[in-house]
Design a protein that fits this description.
By secondary structure, the chain is α/β, with parallel strands linked by helices. The protein contains 12 helices and 16 strands. Helix 2 crosses helix 11 and helix 5 crosses helix 6. The longest helix is centred in the N-terminal third of the chain and has 32 residues.
């Protein structure tokens, strides 16, 4: 009888110890996880927008690394570390919605950086709204992504880049004031609001004459017939409102045809892929709207960022890298300004962000969740950046 009691006692103690050890471990895990703020990254690292997505993922990762190395995020005297969980949206709207849902519902992220392009953001908005999770896109430019159909602001959607209409307006200003172009021909990608929206804003602001507007679809490769049609018209510049894939093809074919006037484009042209497609010799007298340039630092933090990034990655940061870097830092600023890590506080902090000193410019978020800041027009010669002008 004694032996049974003793064995039973030992068993109870052992089980109690195991349970106690498990509880302690869970408490330890909870304490550890309570000092971590999860951020989701929705980047197109494959598909048609992969060049942008890879650059943005690098920028977000670099920001996380720097923030954590410099003491993390400070809230009520406590230090938190960021953890980023990246998902490839594959330049596919269905996939974008799916990975956004996964990050919010399974990974329990507090905020999302991304998606990369306008259509991706539009696919992710319902998911972010349902999950009450703030989402800041580094590069989606369509005017309507932060606005609901009823005219009210999308409560959980923000962006780091200026909207397309602002970009089109400043491109027109540059064409008039800097290039002295009195007549232009416009090529526009009408597959999305990106090309058509920039064109509409450009035409509204441009002081000269728009000689012709030629539309094309995403995936178009042969522009010979259209270029032959416009070749003998009188124009001082060509505006290409689209992305680098078609933009590079237009540039190559027009230069091969002897059309050597200046070319102006939006940020979608501002990628090394443009010169790869067009050829370095054809990528001269080309100007594109940019959010960041090493040659025209917008704030005092821009140059240190560029140097540190080049040391880490062995290359200059692109404007897309810089915008994603700023997006993460904007989330950090929102948390610290509100002194809270909750999703509601981050949302409020982003909406109220004022005079934030980013590497892409000093900015404040307006009532429609858009940043107010200046723009840079970068010039290209032989496929390389050769000039940068701030357009205020």
């Amino acid at each position: 009888m004694k032996r049974i009691v003793i064995v039973g006692a030992v068993f109870v103690v052992a089980v109690g110890g195991i349970i106690g050890y498990g509880v302690m471990n869970r408490q330890s895990d909870q304490a550890s996880s309570s000092t971590v703020i999860k951020i989701g990254g929705v980047f197109d690292t494959s598909g048609d927008a992969s060049s942008y997505g890879k650059a943005e993922q690098d920028g977000a990762n670099f920001a996380i690394k720097q923030i954590n190395a410099n003491g993390g995020v400070k809230v009520k005297g406590k230090s938190y570390k960021f953890k980023i969980i990246n998902k490839d949206a594959k330049t596919d709207n269905t996939e974008t919605a799916s990975v956004t849902s996964n990050l919010i519902n399974n990974e329990k992220v507090s905020a999302i950086v991304g998606p990369v392009i306008t259509s991706g953001v539009q696919a992710a908005v319902p998911v972010a709204t349902q999950g009450k999770t703030p989402m800041i896109s580094p590069t989606a430019g369509a005017d309507n992504i932060t606005i609901q159909k009823n005219g009210k602001v999308q409560p959980y959607v923000f962006r780091a880049q200026y909207k397309n209409s602002f970009m089109g307006t400043k491109m027109a200003q540059f064409a008039t004031e800097n290039l002295k172009a009195k007549n232009v021909v416009i090529f526009q990608d009408n597959s999305s609001d990106y090309g058509t929206g920039i064109t509409a804003a450009f035409k509204k602001a441009y002081k000269g004459k728009v000689v012709d507007v030629e539309s094309y679809q995403e995936g178009s490769k042969d522009f010979q017939a259209v270029l032959t049609k416009i070749k003998d018209k009188q124009f001082d510049a060509v505006v290409i409102n689209g992305y680098y894939t078609e933009g590079g093809a237009i540039l190559k074919q027009m230069r091969d045809m002897g059309i050597n006037v200046p070319v102006i484009g939006p940020d979608g042209i501002g990628d090394p892929k443009t010169a790869e497609i067009a050829g370095d010799k054809n990528t001269s007298n080309v100007y594109y709207a940019a959010h960041f340039s090493v040659d025209a630092p917008a704030t005092k933090v821009a140059t240190p960022f560029a140097k540190a990034y080049k040391k880490a990655y062995g290359k200059e940061p692109s404007q897309f890298t810089a915008l994603a870097y700023d997006s993460v830092r904007m989330i950090k600023a929102a948390i610290e300004n509100e002194n809270s890590t909750s999703k509601a506080a981050i949302t409020k902090g982003l909406a109220n962000l004022k005079n934030f000193e980013g590497v892409t410019g000093k900015m404040s978020i307006d009532k429609d969740h858009n940043p107010v800041k200046s723009m840079v027009m970068v010039g290209m010669t032989n496929g390389k950046e050769s000039s940068a002008v701030v357009v205020k």
